[in-house]
Amino acid sequence: MTKKPLVRAVLTVFAGAALLGAGYVAGIRHTTTNNHTNTAMAPTAAPSNDEVDTKTGRKVLYWHDPMVPNQHFDKPGKSPFMDMQLEPVYADEGSGTSGIKIDPNLQQNLGIRYATVRRQETSGGFDAVGTTQFDESRSDVVQSRVTGYIDRLYASAPMQRIAKGAPVASLFVPDWLAPQEEYLALKRGGMDDGLLEASRARMRAMSIPDGIIVSLDRTGKAQTHVVLTSPEAGVVSELNVRDGAMVAPGQTLAKIAGLSTLWLIVEIPEAQALSVQPGMSVEATFAGDPTRHFSGRIREILPGISSTSRTLQARLEIDNASLGLTPGMLLRVRVGGQKGVSRLLVPSEAVITTGKRSVVIVKNGDGRLQPATVTVGNDIGNDTEVLSGLNDGDTVVASGQFLIDSEASLKSVLPRLAGSTAASAAMPTSTPAAAAQTYETTGKVEKVTASDITFSHQPVQALGWGAMTMAFGKPAPNAFPNVKAGQTVHFVFKQSDDGYQLTKVEPVGGVQ
Fold this sequence. Notes:
The strands form 6 sheets. Strands 4, 5, 21, 22, 23, 24, 25 and 26 form an 8-stranded antiparallel β-sheet that branches. Strands 17-16-20-6-15-19-18 form a 7-stranded antiparallel β-sheet, with no helix packed on it. The two termini are 77 Å apart. By secondary structure, it is of the alpha+beta class. The chain folds into 5 domains: 3-40; 45-93, no CATH class; 104-124 and 342-414, conserved putative lor/sdh protein from methanococcus maripaludis s2 fold (Beta Barrel); 136-258, CATH 2.40.50.100; 427-511, CATH 2.40.50.320. The protein has helices at residues 3-41, 104-110, 177-188, 193-205, 210-219, 413-426, and strands at residues 60-65, 68-73, 87-90, 113-116, 118-123, 126-134, 140-143, 148-153, 160-162, 167-172, 225-229, 234-239, 246-247, 252-258, 261-269, 281-286, 293-297, 300-305, 311-319, 330-335, 340-347, 352-353, 358-363, 369-380, 383-388, 395-399, 438-448, 452-457, 468-473, 487-496, 499-511. 19% of the residues lie in helices and 39% in strands. It is elongated, with a radius of gyration of 44 Å.
């Protein structure tokens, strides 16, 4: 009986120990989880208004990565986006606004020009390109109605110009000789008019022209040659026979394309395909002579979208009575809309297209410049329609797109502007030697190519740079042959039109 209480006591002790252990583990996990959560949220916490830079004594609004200026941090440290330290933004630089401010003298030297975004009433039409073609509805054919032989060919080659009524070919028709001789015999024999009229009807049935029959009564001589002429002034678009060739009834000898009217084929962009209707007005200007204008209305929309140009074709007739145009000419076309449309316009030269998006550099009220992503619409002359991203009255940079590097990487716009501003402040512009000023620092070689060397370098105070990893150009592909990845080096560089270029690289330690 005494064993049962003893067993119960032992079990109670073990159960209590297990509960205490579980509570301890849960508490540790909860604490660790909260610490990780607080650490992850720290970068996005609101910046402190009382932070003061101990080195400069200036009030710090926040820290940020210049490559991602819209992300703010409340403490200094390493950037989560790039291999570089976060940089402070001071209160005396502006009220926390993004962008960069460039000295007015530097703006003048760089040729920066501004334009104002404006809302304007424009026609609902659009610009397009058109080409002239033969008017196929006015093409004529020259055919033979009898069996014969080409005695002489006046049209020598396709695309030869020809006047109306000009000879195309002379045809020898042997079958015409017998009915004509029969008619002359009946006439000489004094036969009555009924037989003569029957003979004439037989000659007409054999496609002998009335002119030859009349000449037969007048001259009394049979004719076996007929000259086929052009029914229209234009060009010989097709020539299907040669001298001496035999022709059969109904065979086409040549095709004549008239030039008094031409077709204008307008290439409609796919984005405008649904807005184009027959009857819309078209104003065309000859690309080779801007003073020559042509007008008309779209007659029909041709079915199908071109798989290569992604355009829809519209067709209309234009007058060419002066024969000044020929097929294949290029015309600038303005297709008129049904009514005016209010559009927000910006100069086309202010829009930077990177391939994935369109960007403009906007000037803020405090004079700072920053990129803004926009959605663009149609081009209206020298302006571009902006659907979103700008407001009426905004000021944008219209020239000076050198702010974008050769790869058009918008992430480097503001750092390059900041570097240019700091460099211009550090280098006096009054001396010729300022253009050749050099900068130096120490860093680790990360990568070596034929065109540049990438360093993880220390801060460059003269340019206002923090520690970062970036590439510097080599003066020549074979420059610095002994520099290898992993070395710690002291290097000197200068600013050039192509970016920052190395002038000296000296190892200061062994391979890391």
